[in-house]
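This section describes the prediction task in plain terms. A model, or a person checking by hand, is given the sequence of a single protein chain and must write out its three-dimensional structure as a string of tokens. No templates, partner chains or ligands are provided. The sample shown here is typical of the held-out split.
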Amino acid sequence: MADKRRFDLFARFIVERFAAPRIFDIAGGQGRLNEALSRLGREVTTFDLRHKHLPVRFAQRAFTLEEPCEAELLVGMHPDGATRIIIEYAAKHRLPFAVVPCCSDNSMPYNPWMRHLAELARERGFPVVQEHCLPMEGRARVLLGEFS
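The expected answer:
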């Protein structure tokens, strides 16, 4: 079972680490991370295909590389198949990103998937690629990329 604190823990990590006032939450499900970040004073837009969601700023569509850049940070909490696009979009617009991957989009085991994502970020030009661990049960490793 997923740790019910995951959204609050990740939101606090994001706010402590990044000064970005506007955030894109990619493949954000019902918008629970959006809700947690909004409580901490951030302006968040969640992108997801779900019809049912919390009363948060929500774009009911898939996130693509063509999305207008109206954020200073991209995040994803267990974004499944959208993890790679988060890194690619962030690199294209020279934005930082923070993701907590849960599974790969190509059946790759978890540890090789994490290494692959870190390498992808480096290949896309991120000079800073780090990993942190949230104090929670389940998939808790945060991969982040920054340009400074």
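For orientation: Residues 110-123 form the longest helix (14 residues).
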